[in-house]
User: What shape does this take?
Amino acid sequence: MDPLTTSTKAQMDKVIEVLKNDLSTVRAGKASPQLVENLVVNAYGGSQKLKVIELAQIAAVDSQTIVITPYDLSIIGEIHKAILESNTGLTPVIDGQLIRISIPPLSEERRGELVHLVNQKLEGGKIQVRQTRHEGMVEVKKQLNEKTITEDDNLRLEKEIQKLTDDTIAQIETMGKQKEQELMAI
Assistant: This one.
């Protein structure tokens, strides 16, 4: 693979990874640590993410309950406050040395709203992929104008970049269909 197509593929893979992480935060009616692990908590005079390695251990004990066990009990209130202020629709309850979050079932209307949100996130990912494609094509034209590649190389590189784009968009659409099925399942 040409260095240009390799870097274009790496950028598109990065878009897919960011989109996967973004979609994992959309709640599908079942408990998942990803719903809260990226929340920012004001603790120790700064802001930190709640992720397992930083402030607390997060676990889904069943399909409807998330349990957060802070490593330091003095910040349990800050974690509780961060969850309440996160606009995720989750209601945390402090239960001794841990925080419990019960995941309520989604209404049909809320499912529709979440599908719409997922579609917006997917469209944003597609736009980023197309932008990456555009940047790759501009670089190919630049190399052709500077005569560092031949006309045949130009055509080959354009086809490779277009194929990478098509494959990545198809991957995004598959992710979207899976997330939509997950959201609409009762």
